[in-house]
Amino acid sequence: PATWYASPTAYIDPTWASIAISAYGFGNELSFRLDEIDEIYYNTPNLYPFIRDAYEQRRNELSK
After folding, report:
1. Which of 42, 44, 48, 60 has the most CB atoms in a 10 Å sphere around its CB?
2. Mean pLDDT calculated for residue range 10-32
């Protein structure tokens, strides 16, 4: 994908270091959204259908 070429961590050798840095970045971004995730978790009576429907909606939007 084109986004891979735009990512500065894609050019780091060895590959495991690039993967580790990307995983750290993902975890860091996720840590800023914990309140949002907790709110969704506690305000949704049944989490599985909510996540499933959100996934399907996203797939439908991406396929347009």
Report:
1. 44
2. 82
